[in-house]
Amino acid sequence: MGHHSNWPEWVYIGVVVALMVWVGAEAWNAERLVEHIPADAEVIKVTGQQWFWTFEHEDGTKEIGELHVKSGKAYKFEIMSKDVNHSFNIHDYVVLLDAVPGRVNTVWFAPMEVGEHDIQCREYCGLIHYNMRAKLIIEEDESS
Amino acid sequence: MVLELQKPRPIWQIMFSTHHTDVGLLYLITSLAFLFLGGALALAIRAELFFPGSQIIADSMTFNRMFTVHGTTLIFLFLLPFASAVGNYFVPIMVRYKDMAYPKLNAIAFWMIPPAGALIWLGFADFTWYATPPYSIISAPGPAADMWIFGLKILGISSVLGAINFIVTILKCKHPDMSIGQVPLLAWSFLTSSLIVLVAIPTFAAALLMLLTDRLGVSGFFNPAMGGDPIAYAHLFWFTFHPEVYVLVIPAIGMMYEIIPRFSRKPIFSHSSGIFAFVLLSMVSFSSWAHHMYATGMSFTEKTVFMIGTLAAVPASAMHVFNFIATMWNGRIKFATPMMWAVGGIALFFSAGAGGVVNAAMPLDFQTHDSYWVVGHFHLFVMGTIAFGSIGFLYYMFPYVTGRMYNERMGQVHFVLSFIGTVLVFFTQHVLGLYGMSRRVYDYPPIPEWIAMNQIATVGAMIIGVSMIIFLINIIYSSGKGKIADTDDPFSLGGKYYWPYEAKNPSH
Ligand code: HEM
Ligand SMILES: [Cu+2]
Ligand SMILES: [Cu+2]
């Protein structure tokens, strides 16, 4: 234990703490904004089961392995599971939430451009987890 | 000095010994055996992922079993027993006591590891290293799953017994002339990590039992079909295993505290700030477990609390990095093999921590969670920091254990190749995660960027594989035929820098 001055260590700790406070504050603010679900968002029920995804729209139409949505509209996913844990993931839109049996988890998104994106399972769920995939198809909204 | 391997002794004399250096040797050999076994699985996994489609592993179930056993092996059967090996050799010497406080208990704790390892390897379960229900209850095939549960149960008990022994040895058996503040930082690292074990492990031990009875169908703690809650398991699991990552990393930092000052030929910059940071880490390690669970559907408030708890651990980790750099500053550094591993480990510790902060920031975690990013993140810790510190320390203690020197050139080649390989594999995996590749997948769609990055990662892994073969040859050859070490100063640092402890061993 030498008798050295310790001020560089204090300055350094101060900088690290300040950085963490900044990261935390930014993250808090961003997450708060992201989680605010628009009131007019249309509900899509998402069900994961070994090893495929089922989607049910508000009007009752069901799709398996494909999800058709309209660009420019907001959607709220209600995510469920029929067997084990899965995780519903549209990576291109940073949509990620676990499908847990016995619970309904909600997350929303608003696709902006027409196109196709991958939907995958991001939580290990057994034999075909690696191929528990679906397609998101974003179409032009003719009604607007 | 204790030169175990220099006196020819029948193997059973070591096996039935309760002396701390013999038990240390048993831990050491066992942990290295599992390093190579678990590492072989990693190479097979990487080879499978070199191209999309099925390559060398017949089916996805086999693949799933392989990554499960890979992770379980390297955490519980390599890193933890390796740390126990180092603790067994050095803690009694550092506190100037003749042995561990409870030598028989010490031997028992070790002998629980081989049967547990056998259960895990013979069962070959598939439900990942966290055995999440309800998959682990309703879907995972037995008897593999049950054998894994029993294996982990035994390992947990062994860990707790080991922790009690370290705590008592340090607090109660240290030489009366020595104040607790004078205890070397390596021993402090065992004190703090053992305290974490005592608080953390029982929670998982309970969860494992509940998992087992759930599997037997007599309870439904985590089974939603019987009114249970799988998220409850996740909380119990991570309440144990977030702190457990510090149980792994703290001894490795302790080992670096031994290596860095010796090879910088300077005293440690601040002994007291090292102690302070260990104690602080051991406490804040309990404030962040649910950062693994942002995507399970936690409320905004819950997520915020655990984010703050996670970020709170960063300054304490950063203090260690500062201490290392300040110690090396203006030192007459000798870059022998142990020093290279320690410095490389610190550099990767820093990079890994930066990635951890990204995971902790809630909105960013929804990009990274359960993608290859997370695989990259924690491997920079477990491989880049903890295994690097441990391997460096193995070279450092090699002359002490065997009485001989390893081949310095081979040790350096081992380091350089491992470092390059580690950067290639795990930095690439971070990027691969950002491109959206899920972890724990046997196959992936042929997206050109994904293929390229998987191939870089596989090449990196093979480079590490080659370096480990060099390592194996080096230690086997050198322990029998290496140059006789000058045990007063094996690294020619100038004698007073090597063994600062009164190391007398009464029973040898
Ligand atoms: C000290 C050594 C550390 C080790 C050994 C370690 C180890 C791990 C492991 C094993 C996982 C993945 C668990 C799994 O899903 O299989 C993980 C994830 C994570 N780590 Fe670390 N970690 C360390 C430090 C840190 C630090 C300093 C931070 C943040 C400042 C951090 C933040 C995270 C977060 C937020 C996750 C969850 C990522 C996710 O699943 O989305 N870790 N870590
Ligand atoms: Cu899955
Ligand atoms: Cu954690």
Key phrases:
heterodimer, A: 144 residues, 1 helix, B: mainly alpha, 0% strand, globular, disordered C terminus, binds protoporphyrin IX containing FE, binds copper (II) ion
Descriptive report:
- The complex is a heterodimer of chains A (144) and B (508).
- In chain A, the strands form 2 sheets. Chain A has a 5-stranded mixed β-sheet with strand order 3-2-1-5-8, with no helix packed on it. Chain A has a 5-stranded mixed β-sheet with strand order 4-10-9-6-7, with no helix packed on it.
- In chain A, a hairpin with a 4-residue loop joins strand 6 and strand 7.
- Chain A is of the alpha+beta class.
- Chain A has 2 domains: 36 residues; 98 residues, Immunoglobulin-like.
- In chain B, 70% of the residues lie in helices and 0% in strands.
- The C terminus of chain B is likely disordered.
- Chains A and B meet through helix 1, strand 7 and strand 9 of A and helix 3, helix 6, helix 10, helix 11 and helix 12 of B.
- One copper (II) ion binds next to helix 9 of chain B.
Which SSEs are present, and which pair or pack?
The complex is a heterodimer of chains A (144) and B (508).
Chain A: H1 7-34, E1 42-49, E2 52-56, E3 62-64, E4 66-70, E5 75-81, E6 86-90, E7 95-99, E8 105-109, E9 115-121, E10 133-139
Parallel strand pairs in A: 1-5, 4-10
Antiparallel strand pairs in A: 1-2, 2-3, 5-8, 6-7, 6-9, 9-10
Chain B: H1 11-15, H2 20-48, H3 60-94, H4 103-111, H5 113-123, H6 135-139, H7 144-173, H8 185-216, H9 230-264, H10 271-284, H11 300-311, H12 314-328, H13 337-360, H14 362-368, H15 372-402, H16 408-434, H17 448-481
Helix pairs in contact in B: 2-3, 2-4, 2-17, 3-5, 3-7, 3-9, 3-15, 4-7, 5-7, 7-8, 8-9, 8-10, 9-12, 9-13, 9-15, 10-12, 12-13, 13-15, 13-16, 15-16, 16-17
The complex binds protoporphyrin IX containing FE (HEM) and copper (II) ion (CU) (2 copies).
